């Protein structure tokens, strides 16, 4: 354990970002928001990284914003207004950076993921949870509706499930988060790291340039009307079809051999 608030390790084309404020339940202080954003942007540009995993040290994944830091800001002349605005702006910037990152991002969740911590899970492309994980958007319980977590939550679970979480503030267990669609898989706590690594390595074995194309297209089309989404997806697929990886992949399938994917480079980087 070090004093660094985010630890980075790379294995088999997968980068692991570990939030490292266990004493504060990995709450998203201003420094944590800035550091996670910087890491996501840098790893998105790294040619030797195909997948990113976000996990955490300590008893829980992330308890949301640092309420002690926010409370201390109320002592300022503007009662914390400028600090609150900067915090929410940096949080939104981080969540959008995860979505716009050209690499798939996987949340590896144990313990609690509440408020902006739940938002972080919802913002990731995929999530694997331990069976001891619990999720909540509990702001309503302390007079602060989880409005920014609502943005990510409402885009990843059904409307009624999102409203139930937002209006009650109740903690939901991992199996209910799976039912809601907030996470992809629930495993025992002892299996969490291995299950997350297996998923990350499976994705990292795909054609990396194709992953870039696919993730960008997914988020682009999902906000469009149906007709526009099909027009956009059709253009993307045609462009993808003439890429060397599509030619190699289809050829390998026809010839019943393993494909030989191009590594990421300046030319293939998104």
TrEMBL record:
Pfam families: ECH_1 (PF00378)
A GO MF label: hydro-lyase activity
Gene3D superfamilies referenced in this protein's UniProt entry, alphabetically: 2-enoyl-CoA Hydratase, Chain A, domain 1 (3.90.226.10), Lyase 2-enoyl-coa Hydratase, Chain A, domain 2 (1.10.12.10)
The entry's keywords: Fatty acid metabolism, Lipid metabolism, Lyase, Transit peptide
One GO term of the biological process aspect: fatty acid metabolic process
SUPFAM superfamilies per UniProt: ClpP/crotonase
Coiled coil region boundaries: none
Matches recorded under PANTHER family: ENOYL-COA HYDRATASE DOMAIN-CONTAINING PROTEIN 3, MITOCHONDRIAL, PTHR43602
Function as written in the Swiss-Prot or TrEMBL entry: May play a role in fatty acid biosynthesis and insulin sensitivity.
Family membership noted in the UniProt record: Belongs to the enoyl-CoA hydratase/isomerase family.
Name under which the protein is recorded: Enoyl-CoA hydratase domain-containing protein 3, mitochondrial
Gene name in the database record: paaF_3
């Amino acid at each position: 354990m070090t004093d660094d608030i985010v630890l980075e390790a790379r294995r088999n084309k997968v980068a692991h970002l570990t939030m490292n404020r266990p004493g504060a339940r990995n709450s998203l202080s201003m420094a944590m928001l800035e550091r996670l954003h910087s890491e996501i942007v840098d790893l998105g540009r790294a040619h030797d990284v195909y997948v990113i995993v976000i996990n955490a040290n300590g008893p829980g994944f992330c308890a949301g914003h640092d309420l002690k830091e926010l409370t201390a800001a109320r002592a300022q002349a503007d009662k914390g207004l400028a600090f609150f605005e900067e915090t929410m702006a940096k949080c939104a910037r981080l969540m959008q950076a995860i979505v716009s990152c050209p690499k798939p991002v996987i949340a590896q969740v144990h313990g609690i993921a509440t408020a902006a911590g739940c938002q972080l899970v919802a913002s990731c492309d995929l999530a694997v949870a331990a069976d001891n994980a619990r999720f909540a958007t509990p702001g309503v319980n302390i007079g602060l509706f989880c409005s920014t977590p609502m943005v990510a939550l409402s885009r990843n679970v059904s409307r009624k499930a999102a409203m139930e979480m937002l209006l009650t503030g109740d903690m939901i267990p991992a199996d209910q988060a799976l039912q809601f669609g907030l996470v992809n898989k629930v495993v025992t706590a002892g299996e969490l790291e291995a299950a997350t690594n297996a998923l990350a390595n499976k994705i990292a074995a795909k054609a990396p340039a194709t992953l870039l194309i696919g993730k960008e297209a997914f988020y682009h089309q999902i906000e469009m009307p149906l007709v526009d989404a099909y027009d956009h997806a059709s253009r993307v697929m045609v462009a993808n079809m003439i890429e060397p990886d599509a030619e190699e992949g289809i050829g390998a399938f026809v010839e019943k051999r393993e494909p030989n994917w191009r590594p990421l480079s300046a030319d293939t980087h998104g």
